TrEMBL record:
It comes from the Bacteria. This is Calcineurin-like phosphoesterase family protein. It comes from Kutzneria buriramensis. Pfam families: Metallophos. Residues 5-187 form the Calcineurin-like phosphoesterase domain. InterPro entries: Calcineurin-like_PHP, CNP_phosphodiesterase-III, Metallo-depent_PP-like. Keywords: Hydrolase, Iron, Metal-binding. The keyword Calcium does not apply.
Length: 243
């Protein structure tokens, strides 16, 4: 079994030409691939302010893609308008957790956001949902917005996933979890979590400058990024690209 996923993150659509252009560039790049990916995962901060207009733009953009687009929310997203415009659902309810089956891989899209807060937290309802989903022993990817490990950029390290211990224990107890995929950090990065690969996708919007690079924390010069994940049985290999 070989599955190919693209992961994009942190579009921060805000109605500006700059944000729209970067998002369109990524979508155009993905639509032009010689071999279409099996699905595009979008790991949150789709909208910048969480307005209906921002999600309507996202929905129009995603509709131009020829493959399934599977999102999870980030701290800039607002559940009500997100549900309405992206999922065509009533704009009420708690965490937006979703399970998809793509090319033999189970994809768990986890809502680790805390309404109106910058940091993340996987609440009781979501932990219970994950426990239920992980009864299925087939190869599984877990995607959520906030990284559960330090990035080593001080302002970002304050708003990561808080109390990741329960998620860590769940991943550790379930060998079918191939990797954990996140966004939020606006930098392409790799680590481990519960002994599994942890991949942080680059942002579609500005990139993060790390302290050792100097200069403004927001790097608008770097082109929008994409991560490609190839899943070969139980192994992941990630290729990073700019669009
Ligand atoms: Fe972001
Ligand atoms: Fe974020």
């Amino acid at each position: 079994m070989t599955a190919l996923f693209a992961q994009i993150s942190d579009l921060h659509l805000d109605g500006t030409v700059r944000a729209t252009d970067r998002a369109r560039r990524v979508v155009g790049y993905l639509n032009g691939l010689a071999r279409p990916v099996d699905a595009v995962l979008v790991t949150g901060d789709i909208a910048d302010h969480g307005t209906e207009a921002e999600y309507e733009e996202a929905a129009r953009l995603f509709a131009t893609m020829s493959v399934p687009v599977l999102p999870c929310p980030g701290n800039h997203d607002v559940r009500g308008p997100y549900r309405k415009a992206l999922l065509d659902e009533e704009p009420v309810g708690g965490p937006i957790n979703r399970r998809h089956r793509v090319a033999g891989v189970t994809v768990l899209l986890v809502d680790g956001t805390v309404p109106a807060q910058g940091h993340g937290y996987v609440d009781d309802e979501t932990i219970a949902w994950l426990e239920e989903q992980l009864r299925d022993p087939s190869p599984t990817l877990i995607a959520l917005h906030h990284p559960p490990v330090r990035i080593h950029e001080p302002s970002l390290d304050k708003i990561l996933l808080h109390s990741p211990d329960r998620l860590e224990a769940l991943v550790a107890a379930h060998p079918q979890v191939i990797a954990v995929l996140t966004g939020h950090a606006h930098t392409a990065a790799a680590s481990t979590f519960a002994g599994r690969p942890l991949v942080i996708a680059p942002a579609v919007t500005y990139a993060l400058r790390m302290p050792w690079e100097g200069g403004d924390i927001r790097n608008w010069d770097q082109p929008p990024g994409v991560a490609f994940h190839v899943i070969d049985d139980s192994r992941i290999i990630t290729h990073f690209r700019v669009a």
